[in-house]
């Protein structure tokens, strides 16, 4: 049994520790982190999954960004504790948070990640959407949260103005 909750301020460092455990060292050097610096998360979409004892099992965060001046969600980081991977927790966090994003009126979401994993949720390679270098363009993926949500949306991905 897992509890799905919105991340609170008190969860911040525990989630950071989970990310440190799940990602290669130096994760914060990735270009996506430059887009997050100094920008608050989209708090209502940042979720944690805890087991019956309250132990953190998985977490997902989102930041706002702009693509060619248009609002978009940047999904990530998402991570599942190594002892709990493959149970569907990653999928649960992604589908629940994207459903919430749709309800909140977000039109598009993007991420930098593995297409073989994210394609099952409807993500596809974005053409003409440029992450700050160095980013492999093959890993720049997006999903429309409304019909044609990515139609005509191209250009540089930049930090949200807030
Ligand atoms: C990637 C991650 C979030 C997936 O969460 P999870 O709860 O383990 O995954 P799920 O149970 O929802 O899905 C499992 C399926 O995804 C596949 N999968 C997991 N990671 C994958 C990847 N990087 N590429 C392709 N497939 C992947 C598994 O092989 C499995 O496939 P199956 O359904 O055919 O058996 C988790 O494994 C994780 O935290 N990894 C380390 C951190 C990371 O890489 N985060 C993503 C950054 S882009």
Automatic annotation (TrEMBL):
One Pfam family here: Acetyltransf_1
Coiled coil region boundaries: none
Domain N-acetyltransferase residues, every copy: 2-146
Family matches, as Gene3D superfamilies: 3.40.630.30
GO terms, molecular function: acyltransferase activity, transferring groups other than amino-acyl groups
SUPFAM superfamilies: Acyl-CoA N-acyltransferases (Nat)
Residues spanning the membrane: none
Cited InterPro entries: Acyl_CoA_acyltransferase (IPR016181), GNAT_dom (IPR000182)
Region forming the signal peptide: none
Protein name (database record): N-acetyltransferase
Naturally occurring in which organism (per UniProt): Szabonella alba
């Amino acid at each position: 049994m897992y509890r799905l909750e919105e991340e609170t301020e008190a969860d911040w460092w525990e989630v950071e520790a989970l990310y440190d455990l799940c990602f290669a060292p130096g994760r914060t050097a990735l270009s996506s982190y430059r887009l997050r610096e100094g920008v608050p998360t989209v708090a209502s979409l940042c979720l944690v999954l805890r087991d019956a004892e309250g132990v953190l099992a998985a977490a997902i965060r989102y930041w706002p960004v702009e693509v060619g001046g248009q609002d978009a969600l940047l999904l990530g980081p998402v991570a599942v504790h190594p002892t709990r991977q493959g149970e569907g927790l990653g999928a649960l966090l992604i589908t629940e948070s994207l459903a919430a994003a749709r309800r909140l009126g977000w039109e598009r979401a993007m991420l930098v990640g593995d297409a073989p994993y994210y394609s099952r949720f409807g993500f596809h390679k974005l053409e003409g959407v440029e992450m700050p270098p160095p980013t492999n363009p093959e890993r720049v993926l997006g999903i429309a949260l409304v019909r044609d949500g990515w139609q005509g949306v191209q250009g540089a991905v930049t930090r949200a103005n807030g």
